[in-house]
Amino acid sequence: MTTTMERPTGPAAATNSPGKRAPARRRRTEAGHVRQTRRTKALIITGLALFTLYSLAPVWWLIVSATKSQRDLYTTNGLWFTAIHLKENLQQLFTYQDGIFLRWMWNTLFYGFVGTAGMTVICVACGYALAMYEFRGRGFLMGCIIGSFLVPGALLTIPSFLLYTDLNMVDTPSAIILPSFFNAFSVYLAKVYAEGAVPPELLEAARIDGAGEYRIFFRIGARLMSTGAATIFLLGFVGMWNSFFGPLVFLRSSEKWTVMLGLYSWLKVKTDSSVDLTGMVVAGSIISLIPMVILLVSMQRYWRSGVTLGSLK
User: Fold this and answer.
1) Do the domain assignments include residue 275?
2) 276, 270 contact by CB (below 8 A)
3) Which tens digits make up the pLDDT trace of 25-60?
4) What is the C-alpha to C-alpha distance for residues 44 and 47, in angstroms, rounded to an integer?
5) How far apart are CA 289 and CA 79, in angstroms?
6) For residue 10, is it within any domain?
7) Is residue 213 part of a domain?
8) Maximum Cα–Cα distance for the chain, whole Å?
9) What is the distance between the alpha carbons of residues 128 and 199, in angstroms, rounded to a whole number?
């Protein structure tokens, strides 16, 4: 005995048939997804455009203002050019007080490169050791390093000044260079990068082959950490280049000042006398950006090689 089931026809069949409902539902879902994707892209592009405008607007103002005379700097639109006086401004900048601005630039480059190079070597070695070696007190030491982030640098000014006075380091380059060798955040950054970039198995294989720890670090660890070291160097150099409080406290002679402290002293002249050096300060600010741009462009290959190395692992 067999039974037959009648298939529904008409509107009921259209309602109960999953094969006919699915395409319409899928089309509605895809349309909603496309609208959401377009809205998300629009928000992202708008945010990036606003961030770019916010970042480049001060630089554009500096470029425009550096081409103006002292009178046009106060009487014309600050976001567009008028008469070009860039050559005269640069000539005045480089010849004022027997070219002391060039001396400030050299001091800043010297302090920055020497101090940052030493800091990079020390911090990369410390981060490598904390990441690769097991020793008693490692957790406590790492806790002290992270806890030091909470200590404001200004809080150490008076103890540092008293210490440097006892060591006869005040008003010397050592007062700026030696403290920059030690940076807790760079040690933490190097440790985190070493944990992801240096495989312990590779170090064990090198030890089995008879390589010493120093050779392993300089031949293997340091090379694998080149991208992290480049980042640490760049961040440290930017901090040294823009440092103001340390040179203000520890340097007395104007011949030993950094470029930021020197430009600030020219701005202060306006409040102490009738001389206005704002035009030279603007031109000097533009010139002081050039080393940072050159450094950033020249170090791009380290980040690019680091990304490529990570994709091949």
Assistant:
1) yes
2) yes
3) 666 666 666 667 888 888 999 999 999 999 899 889
4) 5
5) 19
6) no
7) yes
8) 116
9) 12
Tokens of 17: 């048939």
What's the average model confidence in pLDDT over 223-252?
91
The model's pTM: 0.80
In tens, the pLDDT along 240-268 reads 999 999 999 999 999 999 999 999 999 88
CB atoms within 10 A of CB 249: 16
Question: What pLDDT, on the 0 to 100 scale, is given for residue 12?
Answer: 47
The number of folded domains in the chain is: 1
**pLDDT score of 71:** 87
**What domain range is 272 assigned to?**
86-312
Nearest Cα to Cα of residue 207 among 133, 313, 139: 133
| Residues contacting 105, CB < 8 A, separation 6+ | 259, 287, 288, 291
Task: Extract the tokens encoding 2.
Answer: 């067999």
> In this structure, is residue 204 part of a structural domain?
yes
In the chain, the amino acid numbered 116 is T
Task: Say how far apart CA 200 and CA 157 lie, in whole Å.
Answer: 41
Q: How many residues does the chain have?
A: 313
Domain with residue 259: its CATH number is 1.10.3720.10
Those residues whose C-beta lies under 8 Å from the C-beta of residue 284, and which sit 6 or more positions away, are: 93, 101, 259, 262, 263, 266
For residue 39 the two structure tokens come to 């809205």
Report in angstroms the alpha-carbon separations of 237 from 110, 150, 194, 232, 262: 11, 22, 21, 8, 18
Reported in sequence order, the residue ranges of the chain that DSSP labels E, i.e. its strands, are none
